[in-house]
Each structure stands twice: as C-alpha cells, then as structure tokens.
Write the structure tokens for this entry.
Amino acid sequence: MDFKKKVDLLVGAQWGDEGKGKVVDMLGSEVDVFVRFQGGANAGHTVISDGQKVVFHLLPSGMLYPGKLCVLGNGLVIDPEQFLTETSELFSKGQDRARLAVSPHAHVVMPYHKMLDKLQEEARGKGRKIGTTGRGIGPCYVDKYSRSGLRVEDLLNPDVLRDRLTYILEEKNQIFTKLYSQKPLPFDEIYEPAKKWGEALAPYVDDTRALLRKAVDEGQHILLEGAQAALLDIDHGTYPYVTSSSTSAAGAFTGTGLAPNDLTRVIAVVKAYTTRVGEGPFPTEDFEEAGETLRKNGRSNDRKTKALRLARHSCSEIFNGTQRRKRYCSNKTRCSHRHGRNQSLHVIRA
C-alpha cells in the first residue's frame, strides 16, 4: 500500500440530513481536493463560514477554502441553472475561493427532466408517490442509462447540441403530448438557453479523472462528499422510496474514475435521531409534541422539500432498546454501516 495517499469518503448512514456538512467543515482545512460524485441539486450541505450560513445544493463544500480544488465528477447530473446560481452567489459574496473543475462526462439536467419529474409524481396518485424533489434528477438518470442524455461536453459544441437535442425533443414531446396531454416544448426555448449554459460552463470543464489521478499519485488529501445517504441508495436503500443514484461507498468509484484501492477511509455520519424526506414506510415517525420540539430545536427542515419526517427514538434508545420499532431503525443503521465498511462513525448531536 502507498502510505502517502489519503482518500477519505464521507457518507450518510441514515436517510440524509445527518449533518455531513458539519463534518466536511471540520475536515476542510486538512483537505486538498473536495469531490462530489453522485446525485445533483437535490442535495443540501449547510456550512457556516465567517458567521454566514451557506447552503450548497450542487457545489462541493470546499468552495469556501482558498487554494483548494473542487471537483464535480462524472457521476453527477448537473443542473446548469443551479450551478450558475451558486457560483454567482459565491462570487458576489467574495466566497469563490477554490478552483472548480467540472467533468465533461457529467450528465445535464434539462428543463424537460424537471417537467417529467413533476408530471410522473402527480400521475402516481395517492399512496404511490415517491416524494421526489421535482428537480429532474430521476428522469436525467433515466436518460443517462437509456443512452439518450446530454452530457456537459455536448453543451460546448452548438452543432452537436442542436443535432442531439433535435432527436431528444422529438421523443420528449411525444411523451408530453400523448401521455400527459401537455403542449410540446418549442426547440429554441430549450436550445438557446442550453447553448448559453455551455458557454458559461466551458471555463470550468476539465479532465477530472486525470486531475484526481494526479492528486492521488502526489499524495494529496482528497475528500469525496457523498450526498443523501446509504438508505436512499438506488440498489441498497429502502426501494422504491430512494434516490436515483448510488449513495453508498461503492458509488464513489464509478462517479469519479478512482479505483477501490485508492480509498483509505470511509467516514459514516449519523444523527442522534432519525429523519427522512419523502414518502414510504417510517414506523417510528413522531407526529406529536416531542417530535416537533426535536424538529424545531434541531433545525431539521430539509432544504429542498421543507417536509422532513422525524423518528420517535434517539440513537441511544435505538441501539439499547428491545421494542420492535427501535430494532427496525437499529437494523437499518447497522445495515448501512456494514455495507459501507465504515472505518469511522461520526454522531451528530442537535
């Protein structure tokens, strides 16, 4: 083993909102490279910098540290509008302190993805809703795996963009008009903004796989920032009430191009009480005064849906208890811990 290299992977061990941003902030000064590798603008990391609260939905939390490298890996689905909003806000506040690199192979969330996301959720009806954020993440990943998606590199060439978008919109408009009785999307209303997004993204696009390989070989400290959490993993989570990407440790390799033997440590973060966003079974959900107190005092409101659900029992009760509800949460947390092979477990207290 090369003892010089240091690649840490940070993951949530529950359903998200465990306080991963706090741990990133604790480690930040020691890290050289911050990496996002899955998900998209459906994430939400909150960091306090110079007394100001900064919420990142897409960019790595390391953007606040001078001289660092921040990477958006190929496993992400990037919303250009959200990307430009976050970079502009950081610039206006003088907080864009790090270098930012975007993979040309990351897929792009387009306006039709967001429309489909909302239409599909509405069509599921009562009792079948997933609880999606409506950010277009799922439909974008669907296009990725059906080989009909747009990647960042496609936005950089207007001719390639026009050719690919012509075919894609023909297909999407068939779905909108015939399945959902919606009006077709005009080509220019999608093409013209996308062309401008490509111009804005161009200065950030780089070979992120080569950058990360160089960083590993030079022994730089890399932190892979997981979004959501293990129990929302598309394969290993509480399916179908999950997100659309690989949120467990394994997703870091396909989402960056790094090899499994590059990883030196997995850090799992849990919260002293369990919360989740979206629909689906949650046996220990607390609708009473104690739950509302925890939600309020712990500031447990999801930054995307504002609808965070809260479990009844604390972590100490879960791991020491004997009731069925307590065992349910305990087994799930232990399952995510085993699956990630975590070397370090951080408990966040409200």
Notes: The domain at 109-201 is CATH 1.10.300.10 (Adenylosuccinate Synthetase, subunit A; domain 2). The longest strand covers residues 6-12.
